[in-house]
Structure formats: C-alpha cells, structure tokens
Amino acid sequence: MCDIAVTTTSQQAEATDFESRLVRALNESGLLLLTSIGHRTGLLEALAGQSPLTSPALAERSGLQERYVREWLGGMVAAEVVETDPESASYWLPDERAELLTDRGPVNLAVYAQFIPLLGSVEDDVVRCFHEGGGVPYSRYPRFQEVMASDSGQTVLPALFDAILPLAPGLIERLESGIRVLDCACGRGRALLAMAERFPSSRFVGYDLCEEAIGWAREQAERTGLTNLSFEVRDLSDFDVTATPGAFELVTTFDGIHDQAQPRRLLAGIHRTLVADGVYLVQDIHASSHHHLDRQHPLGAMLYAVSLSHCMTVSLAQGGEGLGTMWGRERALAYLEEAGFHDIRVHQLEHDIQNDYFVCRP
C-alpha cells in the first residue's frame, strides 16, 4: 500500500507540473503572437529608446490605429515585456528588452516570433495531409522567404566572413584571387550578395525554385550595381544529372538541403559540379537523427513544429522524400558520404545554437 501511495503521489505531482507547463506554454504562445505583430507593425522599434509614451502618442508615432495599439500594449504589459505607469497612462520598453526585440542589439529575437503565426496559417492544410497524405505546396507560404532572409541576416551574414568561410582553410584567399561559386537553394541570395561585394574577382551564381525570392535577389543585385553574380529559378530535383561537371570551386547551401524534394540527388549534383579540389560548405540544422537524443535540444520542439508545418511537407508536396528539418547530423553525414564526399569536417559556432557547419571535399 505504501508503494502504491508513493507512486500515486508522484504521478499527481508530475501531472500538476505538466499542467503548469502547458498553461505557461499557452501564455507564452500569446506573447510570441504579440511580439510578431509588434515587429511587423514597427511598434517595438517605435518604443525602443523612447521616453514613456501614451497609447495615442505611440499610435501617432507609428501611423497605426490607436485602439489596436492600446490592446497590443495591454498584452505586452500582461506578458511583462512593456512597462506602464497607470497614473500617466504611459508605456515604455526597457533598454535591456529592446536589445533583444529590435535591431538595436546583435540578435533580434522578434524575427523568430514570426514563425508562429506563419506556420499556424497552414494548420488546416497540415491536418488534411495527416488524413490524406501529400504535402502543403510552397505557394501557401507567401512570407516564408522574407522571414528566412531575416533569419539568415542574423545567423549567416554577421558571421560569414569572420567565422563561416574561414572554416575551410585557404578559402578566403581563393575567393580573393577569384573562383566560381554556386549557392543552391539560395532564397533571396543575401549571402551571395554579400560575398559578391566582398570578393569582386570571384563569380557567383544562385539557384532557387522560388520565383519571388529570385526576383528579389536580382533586383538587389541590379540596385547595388553588382555584375559578378547572377540568379536563376531552377528545380534542383534532378541536379544529379543536370549539374555541369567541374563548374565551381565552391558550392554552398545555407539551411537548404532538408526541405528539398530530392536531397540525395541535389547532393550528388553538388559533388558532380565541384572541381577536384573544390569545397562544399553546408549550414544545416543541428540535431540528432534519433528522436530520443533530441529531448535536450534547446529548440527541439520548435524545430519539429517548423518541419511538420513547412520543411517536411513542402518536400512531400513535390512528391519528394520529406526529409524534414530535424534530419540530424548522423543522416546528414551518411547522405554526404553517399554523394561522394569523403573528407567531411563538422563544426559548431558559438553564436549559432541552431546549426551545424559541414566542410566537405570530394
């Protein structure tokens, strides 16, 4: 009886803890929605570094409707993000929080809050896929490239020249001398735009399936006067046979493999298009290929949600493999070796808890 009583008490305590956790999660999800709205409307930026403002003053400063601004402020006060003085009916965003929620700090975490409403908008489609199979097409995510470009702007671009490219010894010198570079699944091409400006002697090409992303990249290249790069809308699902052999000294993918329709074919094509002493530099999600080993991942649940609601399902929508965001280091190494890469070095960077960096040579 004693053992039964102890077990029952333990189970009740665990149930209570779990209930509390779910309630907290529910409340924090509200914070993320409010944060995304604050980011997209400019309210967070408008509050940052300012003296306390009333709701009408903030609405006027932001060019927004006061009633909506007032309700948003109420939510952010309840979430203990924005502070308020009830006597003056004024509000302010403390500097230490503004550093994390605006572009005033090194990382703007409000950018990532956008994933919650973005992925939630396709929940009905994903539920349908649970019953019927298939996937959710790329066309159902009109803002995904925009949000990913913001993400890349905080993980890739600040570290590109000082930390990421130097992972391959001698690569910076080769880029300065002039080599041919391909970025597969380039999205809006922000990494290529940065490299093309930094290394004018090298030539850069970006491929992506999304016409909107490629159009944006081309406009930026034209606006900045860069003539050493080009962008092309291209389906990479048959890259293993359509890639030009020995065409590039460097190929890069930045979080670009796991949502491909045919990742194995893309990797084989990358191997095919590299010269004999070329380098393939890969950024992809830091995870394990085994579910039980992801329990301690600081972003594990979030990244599985991203996979289920975007990366895995867009691949399945193309009749693809549906590899998913959390394919993991073990599977990544197996795929790279299968593609023909034998010299593979894996790195992690201190600023980026989300990704692994693979330096691969044929």
Automatic annotation (TrEMBL):
Q: What class of enzyme is it?
A: transferase
Keywords (A to Z) from UniProt:
Methyltransferase, Transferase
Which SUPFAM superfamilies does this one have?
Answer: S-adenosyl-L-methionine-dependent methyltransferases, Winged helix' DNA-binding domain
Source domain of life is Bacteria
A Pfam family it matches: Methyltransf_31
Tell me the PANTHER family matching this sequence.
Answer: METHYLTRANSFERASE TYPE 11, S-ADENOSYLMETHIONINE-DEPENDENT METHYLTRANSFERASE RV2258C
Q: What is this protein called?
A: Class I SAM-dependent methyltransferase
Q: Which organism is it from?
A: Halomonas kalidii
State the organism's lineage.
Bacteria, Pseudomonadati, Pseudomonadota, Gammaproteobacteria, Oceanospirillales
